[in-house]
Amino acid sequence: MGALSSRRSRAAASMAVVAALTLGAGSAAFGDDVDDKIKASKSEIDDLSKELTAADAKLKKTDAAVAAAHKKVTTARSKLTSAQQKQTDAKSDYDLAKADEDASLKALARNRTDQAAARTQVGGLARNAFESGGLGDVTFTVQVLTSKTDVTGSMALADIVMRRQQGVITNLKSSAAAGQSEAARLAEVRRKASLAKTKQDAAVAAASAAKKQADTAESDLKTVQATQQSDRASLAKEKKKEEAKLAALEAESNRLKNITSTSDNLDPSVTKLTNEGGFLAAPGPASSIVSPYGYRFHPVLRIQKLHEGDDYPFACGTPVYASGDGTVIEANYNGISGNHVYISHGTVNGVQLTTAYMHFTSLRVSAGQKVKKGQQIGVSGMTGRVTGCHLHFETRENGVAVNPRKWVG
User: Fold this and answer.
1) I want to staple 311 with a disulfide (CB 3.0 to 4.6 A). Which of 41, 45, 248, 348 is the partner?
2) What stretch of H or E contains 162?
3) Contact assessment for residue 346 and residue 267, using Cβ atoms and an 8 Å cutoff
4) Which of 139, 15, 45, 123 is nearest to 385 (CA)?
5) When comparing pLDDT for 324 and 152, which is higher?
6) Which of 338, 350, 351 is closest to 395 using CA atoms?
7) For the chain, percent of residues with pLDDT exceeding 90
8) Are residues 139 and 79 in contact, defined by beta-carbon separation less than 8 angstroms?
9) pTM value > 0.70
């Protein structure tokens, strides 16, 4: 018992050192992210494929990038629509201002024509007055002076002539005033047209920039969508591998269940206990278990998965001892359990009790061999479907995995 106790103490001390080194390394590498390191360790020991988790994480990242790209496209398109509307409005304002300018120019042209005609008429009047010595129309004057009839009518006619001459001058003045007014209005219209043109040019530039941004956003979206399709294909491939692995695990579990009732190496002993707890020795302290027996949710396949035993973070090369007296049912290798040892402990309280130890680097026992509690049966490692050194330990009743805490002390 002294030697057994010594060996147990050394194993416990070894596990404590390994656990300390593991946590210490996590702290040094990741600072405050110790919890993440522990979770990563559990994922490794639970045999969750790194490729699967990486593919899942990559797709989630790409999905987020696609969502962000969609948002950018939506924003860019909205800005483009707004810029194009502003461009349309600016063009409409400029077209109106330009039309107003053209109308003013035409009005000025007409005014110049009117003024030219008025000036011609005024010039004619002035020339006539000069040629007649300032008396106006000589013929008309002679007719008035020599007329034997009442000159009242002739005077009225003269008044009409004078008023017509005055009207010509008034028209010239009015045309000149109208021309000045129209010239002032044209200056204002041209100022507004210039501002409208400036706004239109700015709107065109803004719409062009918005179009480039929208095109870039849509191009980026297509690129990240292509990556998304590739990542989805990669994840689907890894999911198939994971499903195949789970199917293999289930097949091995069923095989182990079968051999616990059909193997020629079943231990014939029968034991009755008043208390089952402590009948078997635990491979290590319960506090060191990094992945305990029980159901857990598969984060990628989205299914419930039973972890059929306890995982102890043994460093590769750590001695592993039998948890109780019994007979080795199987000591062999397969791609799931790696190097493994299955021990029958006989019928205990009416059930065929078996313990299973997996992922050894090397074995120290063989099938059919009798072993004693505390006897070394192998050296821990990382053979089979694992990604890190550890010991996977199971207890089974009639081949069905149960919580080891029921049987170990």
Assistant:
1) 45
2) helix 152-262
3) yes
4) 45
5) 324
6) 351
7) 55
8) no
9) no
Q: Is 338:330 a contact under the CB 8 Å cutoff?
A: no
State how far Cα 175 lies from the chain centre: 72
pLDDT at 15 over 60: no
pLDDT digits (tens, 9 = 90+) for 224-282: 999 999 999 999 999 998 888 889 889 999 999 999 889 999 999 999 998 888 999 99
- Cα distance from N-terminal residue to C-terminal residue, the chain: 16
3-state secondary structure of 373: coil
Q: Distance (Å, rounded) from C-alpha 4 to C-alpha 363? A: 19
The H or E element spanning position 109 is: helix 50-131
At 44, the pLDDT band (50, 70, 90 cuts) reads: very low
- Provide the CB-side half-sphere exposure for 269 (13 A, CA): 16
Letter string b/e over residues 93-119, b meaning 16 or more CB atoms within 10 A of that residue's CB: bbeebbebbeebeebbeebeebbeebe
Q: Position 198: which residue type? A: T
What is the distance between the alpha carbons of residues 99 and 103, in angstroms, rounded to a whole number? 6
Phi, psi of 138 (to 5 degrees): -60, -45
Which of these, 132, 409, 154, lies nearest to 285 by C-alpha position?
Answer: 409
CA distance 16 to 288: 8
Look at phi and psi of residue 278 and say left if phi exceeds 0, alpha if psi is from -120 to 50, else beta. Answer: left
Distance CA 175, CA 187 (A): 18
Neighbours of 175 (CB within 10 A): 20
Place of tokens 């491979």: 283
Rounded to whole angstroms, the Cα distance separating 39 from 263 reads 38
Enumerate long-range contacts of 254-259, CB under 8 Å, 24 or more apart: 256/342, 256/354, 256/356, 256/396, 256/399, 257/396, 257/399, 257/400, 258/399, 259/329, 259/330, 259/342, 259/399
Tell me the C-alpha to C-alpha distance, in Å, between residue 94 and each of 200, 205, 209, 363: 7, 15, 21, 92
Three-state secondary structure call for residue 302:
coil
Nearest alpha-carbon partner for 335 in 382, 384, 380, 383: 384
14-43 average pLDDT score = 37
Residue written as tokens 């004057």?
A: 141
Is residue 293 within 8 A of residue 401, CB to CB? The reply is: yes
